[in-house]
């Protein structure tokens, strides 16, 4: 008796999923509750498990888009299915096909050897000894093939180019040759179907550009104070909290403080209303194997540096393993993205809709700056704030970013709240 395994409900707004990969093959023996496939929606990746032990019989293929409730596979009772036998039966056919293909290629190759203008082996040897390019010699053999006689006469015709013998080989004058480019390796194109996640990200990014009045303001931050704190306390911090002290916790705390002073930066538009929040749910952009995901740190304004670092580390691990839940990626009042980990010096990040602003971090580079009337070298980072000008004015956006800069360049303010 077989049991049908169907696409389970994975969220109220999700009506279809993509079968991203089979973790078990057709005909494999599976155990109850064993993960057999991965399903991907426009928001997250889900695991499909076997609801009983038996032999897997796949129905859907990788890349198929399936509605909720569609049958993905069946679990058959007993041993291996006929798939193994059919595969073995198919193997000789495959070998036979490859052999026929090889013979066809050999036949084409043989025909090419006798193509027009190709010298016979004897002619090729004579021309090589004379240092004459076969391409400059006309052939009188079958299909224009250069014969031994053509090769012998080649230098004679060269000495007497006015010969009127119509059968004599024709020596073509040397002409400048275009320099050819030698390409190493095989040139090939590969088509790959866009994942549900990638399609959704593409649609949302285009919608943000078209539906918001997005502007970006820039500033720079002297990272010396934070780097000194990290250098001085990183070992003790990790020993006490079990997690490293990174830059993200400082930026998150600075953003939370700045949002208290400029709440419109963390607001969002809902129809004809603006929603303001008295909390800061900070979305952190993370690069995952299947694309960019943005998990959320809830109530970040009430968290310590250690709590933020632990939350970031846990979300990053889940993102890399494609185990983020819908709840962990829903909501958020403000987003932070760090292009600096990839070496970006400056960028204009795109707003994470329906939020109204996003802060972009970048690479830290030592640069000369003017400080107290002197030129000094400091580790500097450009920061960028992209915002929706429909609800955030220039004064608010610039003041918000300046406040973030002040808090980062004097981290004690983060502790004292001043």
In short:
By secondary structure, the protein is an alpha+beta fold.
Outline the structure in words.
By secondary structure, the chain is an alpha+beta fold. It has 3 domains: 3-81, RNA polymerase II/Efflux pump adaptor protein, barrel-sandwich hybrid domain (OB fold (Dihydrolipoamide Acetyltransferase, E2P), Beta Barrel), CATH 2.40.50; 114-161, Dihydrolipoamide Transferase (Irregular); 214-416, Chloramphenicol Acetyltransferase, CATH 3.30.559.10. Helix content is 34%, strand content 23%. It has helices at residues 83-113, 121-130, 148-159, 196-211, 224-241, 247-261, 305-320, 326-329, 394-409, 412-416; strands at 3-6, 16-22, 29-30, 35-40, 45-49, 54-58, 65-67, 71-76, 214-222, 268-270, 273-275, 282-284, 286-288, 291-293, 296-297, 334-338, 357-361, 364-371, 374-388. The strands form 5 sheets. Strands 9, 12, 15, 16, 17, 18 and 19 form a 7-stranded mixed sheet that branches. A hairpin with a 2-residue loop joins β18 and β19 (374-388). α2 runs parallel beside α3. The chain is extended, with a radius of gyration of 34 Å. The N and C termini lie far apart (70 Å).
């Amino acid at each position: 008796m077989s049991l049908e395994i169907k696409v389970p409900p994975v969220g109220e707004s999700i009506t279809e999923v993509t079968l991203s990969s089979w973790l078990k093959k057709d005909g494999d023996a599976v155990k109850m509750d064993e993960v057999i496939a991965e399903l991907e929606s426009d928001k997250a990746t889900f695991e499909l498990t076997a609801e009983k032990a038996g032999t897997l019989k796949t129905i859907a293929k990788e890349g198929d888009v399936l509605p909720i409730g569609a049958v993905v596979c069946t679990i058959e009772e007993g041993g291996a299915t006929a798939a193994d036998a059919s595969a073995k039966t198919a193997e000789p056919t495959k070998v036979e096909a490859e052999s026929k293909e090889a013979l066809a290629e050999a036949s084409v190759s043989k025909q090419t050897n006798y193509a027009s203008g190709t010298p016979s082996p004897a002619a090729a040897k004579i021309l090589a000894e004379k240092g004459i390019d076969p391409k400059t010699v006309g052939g009188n053999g079958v299909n224009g093939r250069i014969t031994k006689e053509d090769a012998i006469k080649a230098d004679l015709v060269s000495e007497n180019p006015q010969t009127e013998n119509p059968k004599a080989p024709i020596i073509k004058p040397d002409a400048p040759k275009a320099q050819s480019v030698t390409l190493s390796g095989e040139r090939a194109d590969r088509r790959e179907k866009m994942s549900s996640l990638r399609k959704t990200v593409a649609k949302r990014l285009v919608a943000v550009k078209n539906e918001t009045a997005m502007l970006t303001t820039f500033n720079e931050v002297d990272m010396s104070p934070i780097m000194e704190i990290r250098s001085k306390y990183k070992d003790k911090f990790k020993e006490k909290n079990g997690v490293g002290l990174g830059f993200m916790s400082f930026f998150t705390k600075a953003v939370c403080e700045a949002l208290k002073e400029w709440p419109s930066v963390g607001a969002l538009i809902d129809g004809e209303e603006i929603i303001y929040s008295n909390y800061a749910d900070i979305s952190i952009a993370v690069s995952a194997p299947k694309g960019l995901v943005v998990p959320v740190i809830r109530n970040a304004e009430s968290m310590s540096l250690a709590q933020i670092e632990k939350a970031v580390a846990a979300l990053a691990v889940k993102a890399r393993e494609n185990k983020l839940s819908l709840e962990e990626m829903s909501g958020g009042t403000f987003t932070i993205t760090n292009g600096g980990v990839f070496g970006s010096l400056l960028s204009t990040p795109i707003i994470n809709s329906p939020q109204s602003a996003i802060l972009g971090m970048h690479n830290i580079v030592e640069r000369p700056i003017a400080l107290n009337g002197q030129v000094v070298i400091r580790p500097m980072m450009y920061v960028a704030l992209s915002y929706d000008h429909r609800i955030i004015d220039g004064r608010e956006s610039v003041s918000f970013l300046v406040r973030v800069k002040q808090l980062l360049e004097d981290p004690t303010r983060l502790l004292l709240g001043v």
